[in-house]
Amino acid sequence: MKKASSYKCILRREFILTVGKGIAGVGVIASGIYPAQALQKADKEVVNYQDTPNGSLSCSGCRFFDGESGCAVVDGKVSADGWCVAFSAS
Ligand code: SF4
Fold first, then answer.
1. Which domain holds residue 31?
2. Is the pLDDT of residue 47 over 80?
3. How many domains does the chain have?
4. Is the CB of residue 73 below 6 angstroms from any atom belonging to ligand 1?
5. CATH code: domain of residue 71
6. 90 and 63 in contact (C-beta within 8 Å)?
7. Which helix (H) or strand (E) holds 8?
8. What is the pTM of this model?
9. Strand, helix or coil at 62?
10. Rounded to the nearest whole angstrom, what is the distance from the C-alpha of residue 63 to the centroid of ligand 1?
11. Which amino acid residue places its CA nearest to atom 2 of ligand 1?
């Protein structure tokens, strides 16, 4: 049986790998090397997405938010008032 800290370590590794791929994908697309289909976005669970802000931080202030309900690195619809651990100030 794994300890809770082992699961946290695995989750952290999954997050880094998934978000890393997403962010790398954004860079690759921006460079024009590969088509947009190459981008794989992170699942909401992996980035601990929530529909509420984290203090003063929310999707509306994140560089990955498209201004409506989309995110460049997280799969599915997101809220302007949402937040996740991939937040990056715009
Ligand atoms: S905080 Fe940023 S990266 Fe996370 S879901 Fe919102 S727009 Fe996407």
1. 1-90
2. yes
3. 1
4. yes
5. 4.10.490
6. yes
7. helix 4-31
8. 0.64
9. strand
10. 8
11. 87
